[in-house]
Specification:
Layout lengths: L6 E4 L2 E4 L9 E9 L7 E2 L2 E3 L6 E3 L3 E2 L2 E11 L2 H11 L10 E7 L2 E9 L4 E6 L2 E10 L4 E3 L3 E6 L41 E5 L9 E6 L2 E2 L2 E3 L4 E4 L2 E2 L4 E5 L5 E3 L2 E2 L4 E4 L9 E7 L8 E6 L2 E2 L1
Antiparallel strand pairs: 1-2, 1-9, 3-8, 4-7, 5-6, 8-12, 9-10, 10-12, 10-13, 11-12, 13-27, 14-26, 15-25, 16-21, 16-26, 17-20, 18-19, 18-25, 19-24, 21-22, 22-23
């Protein structure tokens, strides 16, 4: 695709859609980012029916996302250009690390995590400008919104107050609907926390992972959704923080791995184009413990 984006940032290096020189005298222009707007390839497999027309199909899952960033690089003089090309060759150089590729365009800002998939190609066009091509692979093909959404709840609690009304003195007949002193009508009390948060991926076109953070105290804290149930078989003190990543399956208690303490591991995602209710409870309800859910709208 021809780049109309305002900014493309790869591993902290910015590539613009037009010719602007930075403070070091270098201009990096992105002319094409192949593989960003389209979808990844699908892994398909079909088994021919032996005695009938057609085939038996299997699930067609998205493969990794393959991206190619092409552009033009220019320097205020030849030495500046050569140094800029050498610096460009160092992009995403750690073979064991994934780097952030972010695109800021008219629709917002999305990112994915990538690694270099082959050599960086570059050549000089003239003494002060050159061309480059960087091939990248995103193992997770989803594009994630930079905005991290969040929702928090306590465990379910009874409401405060209850029905209250102030009837007249004895000796009257019928129901008198005066409210408590200073009010009119019946006062119904205040609702308590429901213990449920709703996470929203309605704008997304891919399932979204959820990061769950439980602040104690809680014994056997339980997360229930229609997509899966997670139960931690242990007791959290008021200072304990349990973090569960439904995408990676990571379970950390105060930073230490406690995956082995999961009594149920029904990890779930927010379906694309939908919302999901998440219920928080424990063996003994209290009004101190909290559940925080964090997620990003996700796209293919």
């Amino acid at each position: 695709m021809a780049v109309t984006s305002k900014v493309i940032t790869l591993a902290g290096t910015r590539f613009l859609a037009r010719d602007i020189y930075d403070s070091s005298g270098v201009s990096r222009i992105a002319t094409d980012l192949e593989g960003w707007l389209g979808t990844p390839k699908l892994r398909t497999a079909y088994t021919p029916l032996p005695f009938a027309a057609g085939s038996i199909y299997s699930p067609a899952y998205a493969d990794q996302r393959v991206l190619v960033l092409d552009g033009v690089i220019a320097g205020s003089d030849e030495a500046v250009l050569i140094r800029a090309l050498r610096s460009l060759n160092g992009l995403c150089s750690d073979p064991s690390q994934l780097y952030t590729l972010q695109v800021d365009d008219a629709a917002g800002s999305l990112f994915c995590l990538v690694q270099r998939s082959t050599e960086i190609l570059s050549k000089l066009v003239n003494p002060v400008s050159g061309m480059f091509s960087v091939s990248l692979t995103a193992p997770d093909p989803r594009l994630l919104d930079v905005v991290l959404q969040s929702a928090i709840t306590q465990m379910a609690q009874p409401g405060a107050g209850g029905v209250a009304w102030n009837g007249p003195a004895p000796g009257t007949t019928g129901t008198q609907w005066n409210g408590p002193t200073g009010t009119t009508g019946i006062a119904w009390g205040q609702p308590g926390p429901s213990g449920i948060v709703t996470v929203d991926n309605t704008a997304g076109t891919a399932p979204a992972d959820v990061l769950l953070t439980i602040q104690g105290p809680a014994t056997n804290p339980t997360i229930i959704t229609t997509a899966g149930v997670i139960v931690y078989g242990g007791t959290l003190s008021v200072s304990d923080v349990l973090v569960i990543n439904t995408g990676t399956g990571s379970v950390l208690l105060n930073g230490a791995n406690r995956r082995n303490l999961l009594a149920r591991a029904g990890f779930f995602q927010i379906p694309s184009g939908k919302t999901l209710g998440i219920s928080f409870s424990a063996d003994l309800q209290n009004n101190v413990a909290t559940l925080t859910a964090q997620w990003r709208t996700s796209y293919l």
